[in-house]
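Hi everyone,

Forwarding the result from last night's run.
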Amino acid sequence: MTLNFNKRWADYIILSLSIFFVFCLLFESYIAPPALVAWLGQWHPVLLHFPIVLLLIAIVLKFVGTRIPPMLLTVAVISALLTAITGFLLGLKSGNKGDLLYWHQWLGAGVALTAVVWYYLERTGHGAHRALKGLGAVLIVFIGFAGHYGGTITHGEDFLALPGSRQEEKIPDNPLIYEHVVNRILKRRCVKCHNPNKTKGELLMTSHDHLLKGGESGSTVIPGDPDKSEIIRRLTLPDDDDDHMPPEGESPLTPDEVEILERWIALGASDTLRLDHLDPTEALLTLIKEMMEPDPLEKWALLPDVADSTLQHLNSDYVTITRLAGTTNAVRVVMYMPPEYDPNHILNLRPISDNIVEFDLSGLPIGERELGLVAACTNLEWLEIDRTPVTDAAMDTLNVLSKLRLLKVYDTEIGDESVPLFMNWEHLEKLFLWNTRISENALASLKSAKPDLSVEDGITGDLEAFFVAEDSIPKQDPPQIP
């Protein structure tokens, strides 16, 4: 082998690093590096992008038939070996390797050692042009798969998932607290670093048994005692504390998520506890119910686009239209009584009917046509038609509003015939209906059939203060809608 003496230093470095790396791979189970040597593994994420770029440049040059600068290939191969060695040292800290880490390590080794073979064939001129192109293709495959497995270890198994494909399953109506709530929080915030492929601190958080078993820092969860549970201690440390979890750069748990974990541990950290087992006064009950509510911004993301110019055109002295949040396409419409009532103020809103999520028609003499427009607002969640001339017959027009969560219909002529409609609205959470013709028996039936529905059937205490502004609006006395 004829080599330029001035460049033998590079050959010696590459040969030495290659022998050392192969030795590490063969005798991994016997290696326990000193703390300082193990610390070198922390440099793996810093180094890994450097050789990838250099090797890809070299491969492209080879494929287009351009001479590869010797220094480029030399630096690429040395940095590839250093990256593989630091990755090996970093992998030693994880204890038992899962499939992802196992394949990432060996594919990374394949990148480094294939690059070494390519280097010597290129330097000595013993490699045929076609053979070197083949090695370049192999390197591309190794780099691609090693990068994929490395990214999966670091960012989670769905880090390359297409937009909209990462939606979590809906929490059941009566969830198991651990399986459907606690585990969901851990998967979102903690499992990325505590899984079979990356067992940080020798702690697995992928199952109830592993969580109770704990890691090298002791008992992660002590049933009945959140104050002595390591997970709560770590979560509640100051953000700048080295032991704070999740580590800097990762998304922290929200205060509600931390409280959910605390209350679950305080109640015994059981994997069989269900929502309906909780006392009505238990704080965990309220926290989970709030968590079960869908994110409004996600829910409204499917609404049709509506331009600001359209909203400005429809706004007037008697119609106020506002977006419910930022640039969302969900809007709130508030109607005011003009000196001379004109139903067209409402009917002109038909172009944005699919965008109206909240609609306030309080105190207006609305008729059948206006109610037809309201019924066309298929995404309506909040409707105020109190102090209007609606009757049971008119209310039947609104039975298509399947997403309705809140309805104000007090001070109207509706009666018992409207009660079945309230029962059929699956998502109805709050109903205001004092001063109507609904009988006490029908009201009792409604409350019995829908115990979770908040029914306000009389003004007392806070309600009186809440509606004082509305009551100050002069009441109209229009003819009833037939």
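The radius of gyration is 33 Å.

Cheers,
N.
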